[in-house]
C-alpha cells in the first residue's frame, strides 16, 4: 500500500512561484509513474504533468514552459515547480502514483493541496 502526502500549496501572486512536494510511503515508489493533476471549482480534474519511473515527462499544454515535474527516488518524493503562475492555475492539486506492474494495476491519490493565484 502506498500513501501520498502533498505539501507546498498556498497563495501566490500572478507571476510568482510555488513548489509542490508529494512524499510517498511504501517500497514501490521507484516503479510508479507519478503525476500531478488539478481540479478547479466546477471543472473536471485534469492532468498537469507526469513523470515515468525512467524520468520521461509530459505536460499539459497550458503549463509547458512554466511548470517542471521531477522526482527523487531516494527520498520517495515527486515535485512540481510552478513558475510564472497565472490566476487560471488556481485549483486543488493532487498527486498520483500509478503502476501496471502489479496485479491488479494500482492507482494511488493524495488528499490534495490548494493553490491560489491572486493579487
Runs in which pLDDT lies below 50 for 5 or more consecutive residues are none
Strand content: over 45%
Helix percent band = under 10%
Structural class comes to mainly beta
Oligomer: single chain
Write a concise synopsis of the structure shown:
Helices cover 0% and strands 50% of the residues.
Can you offer a commentary on this structure?
The chain is globular, with a radius of gyration of 14 Å. Strand 4 and strand 5 form a beta hairpin. The model has no long low-confidence stretch (mean pLDDT 95). Strands 2, 4, 5, 6, 9, 10 and 11 form a seven-stranded mixed β-sheet that branches. It has a four-stranded antiparallel β-sheet with strand order 1-3-8-7, with no helix packed on it. By secondary structure, the protein is an all-beta fold.
Spell out the blueprint of helices and strands.
Blueprint: E1 4-7, E2 10-12, E3 18-24, E4 33-39, E5 46-51, E6 57-59, E7 67-72, E8 77-82, E9 91-99, E10 106-109, E11 113-117
Parallel strand pairs: 2-11
Antiparallel strand pairs: 1-3, 3-8, 4-5, 4-9, 5-6, 7-8, 9-10, 9-11
Task: Provide keyphrases for this structure.
4-stranded antiparallel sheet, 119 residues, single chain, mainly beta, 7-stranded mixed sheet
Amino acid at each position: 500500500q502506498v500513501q501520498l502526502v502533498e505539501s507546498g500549496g498556498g497563495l501566490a501572486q500572478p507571476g510568482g512561484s510555488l513548489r509542490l512536494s508529494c512524499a510517498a510511503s511504501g517500497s514501490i515508489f521507484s516503479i510508479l509513474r507519478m503525476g500531478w493533476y488539478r481540479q478547479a471549482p466546477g471543472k473536471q480534474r485534469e492532468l498537469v504533468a507526469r513523470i515515468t519511473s525512467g524520468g520521461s515527462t509530459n505536460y499539459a499544454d497550458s503549463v509547458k514552459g512554466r511548470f517542471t515535474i521531477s522526482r527523487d527516488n531516494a527520498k520517495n518524493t515527486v515535485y512540481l515547480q510552478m513558475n510564472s503562475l497565472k490566476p487560471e492555475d488556481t485549483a486543488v492539486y493532487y498527486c498520483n502514483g500509478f503502476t501496471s506492474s502489479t496485479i491488479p494495476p494500482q492507482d494511488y491519490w493524495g488528499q490534495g493541496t490548494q493553490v491560489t493565484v491572486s493579487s
